[in-house]
Design goal:
Length: 174
């Protein structure tokens, strides 16, 4: 951690600083939180860098990361109407098998809730997000059941778009 912090502090450009941040972000705690906040304060005006910042946190395999990602949905720089922000944060989160596919179902619930919200704003993006459930039958019985519950919840949503309906119904039927 000390080496990564030294690299972060002495970096001469964003790429070097981000590489050090990536190492720091894998260990939960105050240091991680402080450095993530520092990086954001330095780069908050560059939306592409902020997207990388969201993705870095979303893909983290630290235990219980779903809570961090849920909090980031409320971050001032996050906009559910912006597809790139959604892909960075929500799709990035789905890339973490440790947290998206956790046995308590919190990752699946988070995605299910996000798909329903997104469907009202951007059905195309929502359908891409619901496709993360398409491989639900490849997992153990516990995860299989938890994913199925979310797919059924999505299917029961009033005024579901055709885009999301098609992906969710095909996923359930597979």
């Amino acid at each position: 951690m000390e080496l990564a912090l030294q690299e972060y502090r002495t970096a001469t450009n964003m790429t070097e600083q981000f590489a050090a941040l990536a190492a720091i972000a894998q260990k939960p705690g105050k240091t991680r939180d402080d450095v993530l906040a520092d990086f954001y304060s330095k780069w908050q005006h560059d939306f592409l860098v902020v997207n990388k910042w969201f993705a870095l946190q979303a893909t983290s395999d630290i235990s219980g990361n779903v809570v961090n990602v849920q909090n980031l949905v409320n971050h001032p720089a996050f906009d559910l109407r912006n597809p790139n922000k959604v892909y960075s944060l929500i799709r990035g989160f789905c890339g973490s098998p440790v947290n998206f596919r956790t046995k308590d179902g919190s990752g699946y619930r988070f995605l299910g809730e996000m798909v329903v919200k997104l469907d009202k704003l951007n059905p195309q993006v929502a359908s891409r997000m619901v496709s993360e459930f398409s491989r639900w039958k490849c997992y153990d019985e516990t995860r299989l059941g938890l994913a199925k519950v979310q797919l059924e919840m999505i299917m029961s949503t009033n005024r579901l778009s055709q885009n999301v309906f098609e992906i969710a119904s095909k996923s359930l039927a597979a």
